[in-house]
């Protein structure tokens, strides 16, 4: 059943069925992530967040999916486990942003007293 496959397996199958891996080098994947993130950001330009969520949720989902798909492909190319790299980053962020200093506060960690 297709639902039992991981997202990475589904993305790889889609790409490999079309013989597109040859075009998906790390540089071009990083560029594609940025371009798709910009398309996501463009949905919010000159509008309130509420307005975009109400009228463009379908487009948000599509652009976010594009960012995530390219991110999965880049991680796969570099033999990185997405869950592991997220766990590592959360541990780093936990040290930089302890609850005692950051709860309810949107300051950057360098601005903590």
Automatic annotation (TrEMBL):
Is DNA repair a UniProt keyword of this protein?
A: no
Pfam families (alphabetical): MazG-like
User: What keywords appear on the UniProt entry?
Assistant: Hydrolase
CDD domains found in the cross-reference section: NTP-PPase_RS21-C6_like
- Which GO MF terms are attached to this record? nucleoside triphosphate diphosphatase activity
Q: Which residues cross the membrane?
A: none
User: Highest taxon of the source?
Assistant: Bacteria
Q: Which Gene3D superfamilies match?
A: MazG-like
The alphabetized list of GO BP terms reads:
nucleoside triphosphate catabolic process
Q: Give the protein's recorded name.
A: Nucleotide pyrophosphohydrolase
- Source species, please? Carnobacterium inhibens subsp. gilichinskyi
């Amino acid at each position: 059943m297709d639902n039992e496959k991981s997202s990475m397996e589904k993305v790889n199958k889609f790409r490999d069925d079309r013989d597109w891996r040859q075009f998906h080098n790390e540089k071009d994947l990083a560029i594609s992530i940025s371009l798709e993130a910009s398309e996501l950001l463009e949905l919010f330009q000159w509008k309130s967040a509420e307005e975009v969520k109400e009228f463009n949720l379908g487009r948000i989902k599509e652009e976010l999916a594009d960012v995530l798909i390219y991110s999965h492909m880049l991680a796969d190319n570099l033999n990185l486990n997405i869950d592991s790299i997220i766990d590592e980053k959360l541990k780093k962020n936990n040290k930089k942003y302890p609850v005692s200093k950051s709860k309810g506060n949107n300051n950057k960690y360098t601005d903590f007293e």
